[in-house]
Amino acid sequence: MTPVLDIRRLRVERGDTVILREINWRVAPGENWVILGANGSGKTSLLKSLTGFLAPTAGEFSVLGRSYGATDWRTLRLHIGVVTSAFAAAIPPAEVALETVISGKFAQLDLWARVTAAERTAARRWLRVVGAERVAEREWLYLSQGERQRVLIARALMAKPRLLIFDEPCAGLDPVARQSFLELVDRLARRQTAPRVRNGRLHGRHARATPALVLVTHHVEEITPAFTHALLLRRGEVVAAGPRDAVLTSRNLSTAFGAPLRLATRGGRMALSFR
Ligand SMILES: Nc1ncnc2c1ncn2[C@@H]1O[C@H](COP(=O)(O)OP(=O)(O)OP(=O)(O)O)[C@@H](O)[C@H]1O
Predict the structure, then answer these.
(1) Which of 24, 88, 146, 251 could form a disulfide with 177 if both were Cys (CB 3.0 to 4.6 A apart)?
(2) 170 Cβ contact partners less than 8 Å away, ≥ 6 residues apart
(3) Counting atoms of ligand 1 from 1, which one is nearest the CA of 54?
(4) Which residue numbers delimit the ABC transporter domain (predicted)?
(5) Residue 203 domain-assigned?
């Protein structure tokens, strides 16, 4: 099966600084990954490379079988959704949530002349999926942090991406909003991992391509059971990558964060403490 993502020996340098060094990472269909690493370990730079905003110095990678360099970024980007609070500043304050969601389908195209009733219906459906339907007509300016994150997810889903990346999505959320947000991410992940199959074919809402999820975080508490794999970075290098139980160990996390840490699991949720 064509990997969702295939990165080989990716290296990124700027001036004398090596930002990413020899990154090898493969995401197969059906896998959901979490990326963990200390401040400055290269998480955002890796995402920027994948979305064409940070040019590699060496190495090769492909997204959904399309190779970097051989495919127009505008085409590749249509398949990759990124949910990051960094987008918040780019949303017009007076834009209502429904319009923000619809704009996800069009990226940079001239939007308003083209919006159809079907697209409005689809946008409402995505707002319902993320539990934000009641703010559909509310301006961005007035949305809470949690509501904004949900609207940005709906916006990303509108383009039907094959890979959906969450970059520190829980920053700024209160504990209850964070829990509810994580349950939403988990639900999205499970839509993918539990498809309905009949006569060897996907059916119903799962018949659509559902995205592989990548969650970038500093907090192991945010890793819900739906995340099957983990990538640990330290100073631009991979500490470990693979199935979560093999990668998320006290030892690997201590190496990644450069401090003696103990990983414990309570009630199905992970927690880190200092040894
Ligand atoms: N264009 C650039 N030129 C020089 N150095 C850069 C550039 N972009 C990133 N860096 C450096 O590369 C390192 C990795 O940065 P990056 O933002 O990817 O880390 P991160 O893991 O996302 O960190 P955080 O958890 O703090 O968000 C940092 O030391 C950063 O200063």
Answers:
(1) 146
(2) 178, 181, 182, 217, 219, 222
(3) 1
(4) 2-260
(5) no
28 has pLDDT over 80: yes
For residue 236, the ligand 1 atom closest to its alpha carbon is 14
Question: Which residue owns the Cα nearest ligand 1 atom 25?
Answer: 39
262 located within any domain: no
Question: Which residue's CA lies nearest to atom 4 of ligand 1?
Answer: 14
**99: CB partners within 8 A, 6+ apart:** none
pLDDT in tens, 102-125: 988 876 544 555 788 999 999 999
Ligand 1, residues 10, 35, 36, 43: which to mutate, most atoms within 8 A of Cβ?
43
Q: pLDDT by residue (tens digit) across 252-274?
A: 999 999 999 999 998 888 999 99
Contact status, residue 202 vs residue 252, Cβ threshold 8 Å: no
Bridge partners of 217, per DSSP, are: 36
Is residue 131 lining ligand 1, measured as CB closer than 6 Å?
no
pLDDT band at residue 42 under the 50/70/90 scheme? very high
* Domain count for the chain: 1
Residue type, 54: L
- Which domain does 96 fall in, by range? 90-159
Q: Does any ligand 1 atom lie closer than 6 A to the CB of residue 86?
A: no
81 Cβ inside 6 Å of ligand 1: no
Task: Let me know if residue 234 belongs to a domain.
Answer: no
Chain position carrying tokens 């059916």: 203
What pTM did the predictor assign? 0.89
Name the DSSP class of 159.
T
Q: Give distance in angstroms: CA of 267 to centre of ligand 1.
A: 34
Q: Is residue 112 part of a domain?
A: yes
Residues 127-167: pLDDT tens digits? 998 999 999 999 999 999 889 999 999 999 998 888 999 99
By percentage, how much of the chain surpasses pLDDT 70?
91
Most confident of 157-161, 199-203, 239-243, 268-272: 239-243
